[in-house]
Amino acid sequence: MAFSRRSWPQRCGFLVIGSTVSRIWLTSQYCAEMSALSQFRRVDGVSQRCSVMRFRHLCKQLSTSTLSCSPIANYFSELKTRGLVQMSYPSNLDTDFKGDLLALPPVAYAGFDPTAKSLHIGNLLIVVNLLRSAQFGVRPIAVVGGATALIGDPSGRSAERETQDKDILMENAKTITAQLKSIGNNVLKEEITVVDNNEWFKEMPMVDYLRNCKQLRVGEMLRMGAVRARLEGSGISFTEFSYQTMQAYDWAMLLKKYDCRFQIGGSDQLGHLNIGAHYIKRTCGEKFAAGVCLPLVTDSAGNKLGKSVGGGDVWLSAELTSPFHFYQFLRQLHDTEAEQMYKLYSLAPWEDVLSKIQEHRSNLGKWIAQDALAIELTQIVHGNEGLCTAQRCSRALFQGSMTDVRSLSRTELVTLFGNTIKVARSEVGTMGDLADRTRTDSIKGSALMTKGAFKVNGEKIIDNTTPLVFERIVLPNANDLTLICWGGCAEYMSAGRAHSKLQLLVLKTYRDFLRAARPLDQSVRQQVQTEFREAAKRYHPSDILLIEHNLRRANNQLKQLKTGSVTSIGNITIKRKQENDGGS
Fold first, then answer.
1. pTM score, two decimals?
2. Distance (Å, rounded) from C-alpha 437 to C-alpha 435?
3. Can you point out the beta strands (E) in 113-208?
């Protein structure tokens, strides 16, 4: 049971420690008990002083069922509900240390080392869940590791990092600082606090640094998982070994500046949480600090989410990954991946998330979870303008909306449709000439025009003798670009074009599905045909990785279909044979 702010005078006990005032939220059954405790008795609206130890002892005596949570405890509970707490320091934080958790100040931080020009979609999990804390009255703080990036975090690395140029790292730090503030502005009403740890490290003398490390124990540092693994393997330099001392000092500085004693980090940060919390306890008057490690998000193949076969990431920078490609990456996720990401990344209330997932499961094939995730995260990362651009590009590409194509800027057009073919005016005089010039294979374009396979800015051109007027074919927002589309009709698709290996694999998979579905109800066969046709409309030739991903998915489903162990494929519902026989 919780109480509104209006009930504070009647329902709250107050504790004054130095200049800090803490509220203890009580249910009615504890009001009398609390008033009987002299150390918490209110006198003329002002609390009497008591010791920190007495306060902690009292909190541990009160059950969380009767003592409602503090902002940090509410925040931690939400993370746990969504499956976001892979590990915590200390472990069993909400049971064995619930009193300490309740007493934590409403401030949380996460750190980001600027080892690249931009954050990526894996980092976004930490960013959005740091911002989530604001929903519970917690102040989010982002720390950009301008200094720690110069050293290198050994966590998750089997070998020493390559030393990067200092100027590049400093430039990266500025870019990521701006990126974090931009994302914060898209979500929060107030600007997020972003600090660079280079502020307190750049002028620190070596002697002061070593004195600050006095409370750190080498034995504990050697027991850290990442360090131990490196010592047993390729070894570790003193530089990377000392990284944990700097991160521990970061936390202590944030405590002094912002009263921050709660941290969130990636799945490999438990050792740093341990070292940092112990450092705070020894240097900051026995103060309790805690933190959580968020899970590593992977795709169905176990790879880090956002990693392509070529090794690139899905970046949060519009220059490295356009809003359209960011949106489409999320829009094309596998159903199970979309559900997982929606639970972990969405800032919508948990009840709304569960409702959306249930709607998604009831309408498989309509991409409900993917749509919701793509819209929300694109807006968070790129703002309303970026989301509108991504949706315009998507409509133009997948729905053939020439209204949207004509509204796109030159940059958006080049980003969307990729490489261009340069054609000089002197080279072409008719639409047939243009068709021949824009073919990249041995088939004559002017011959295919009569089959309805040639479109200029969305308009089908059949007569290859039609004079070409440049002023009429260029796009409004790009007076040197024309959109040429090939295909889109049965005659062209069967006109003897040489299929690539990938196209043959798609067709073979389709035929295998139809053969496997023959013993089943006729409606299932029709659903298979519909599913493949709808999928074909969504693909663009540049989406080779998406096609390969869905082929792997299709082949796995095909195996299950042949063995009768699958209950659904996309939006296809298949009753098992034993269910039909047994009438379950």
1. 0.67
2. 5
3. 139-144, 193-196
